[in-house]
Amino acid sequence: MKLFTFRGLPWWSSSSTGGQEKVELTAVEVESLRSELADIEERAAQLRAQLENVDVILRSAHLSGYLFIRTRWTTLPGEPPPIDDYDVDDWLPRFVVLHSECLYFYLFCTDLSPDDLTLLADIVEVEQLPSFKRVDDETRYAFYILTRHGLRYECSSSSKIQVDSWLSALHSDCKLGSDKPTSNGSIEV
Known about the structure:
It comes from Flemingia macrophylla. This protein has helices spanning 27-60, 160-173; strands spanning 16-17, 20-21, 63-73, 92-99, 102-106, 116-119, 123-133, 139-147, 151-157. It is α+β, with helices and mostly antiparallel strands. Strands 6-5-4-3-9-8-7 form a 7-stranded antiparallel sheet, with helices on both faces. The chain has a two-stranded antiparallel ribbon with strand order 1-2. The protein starts with 15 loop residues before the first strand and ends in a 16-residue tail after the last helix.
């Protein structure tokens, strides 16, 4: 039973000898096939490298996952207040990795190098933002990360558990205390 036929290929020969099909290729066709095989092998090597990179990152990361991110700069003294951009949907999905002394931002989890990074030592504030509803009525839970340089990363997710995990991990890794008084008047750190 023949499931596949090669009639459409220019080098297909319909003559058969003893059940063996004879295929004659020109030098150009052979070189073209070799080139295609080399390209496929190169692509496979790149994909293996990406997979190994993702594996190393995920095994050694404290926390990782996709978050919706947007960046803002804090206003400098004398600048007018920022324009209210609540209606602008500029949240972009990013794969965020909390690893060692850095917070890495990747465009995709398979990227070999991060799109952006922030040192944990530069983070001065991590706090929760009010949740909000998107156009599709999906509730997003949000938090922000403020660096000492004035860069503010606003992060959101549809999972409250994920946001709480990020807040907890960032507070502990950045050594940021909540500084909130407890019921007995002491301060939690």
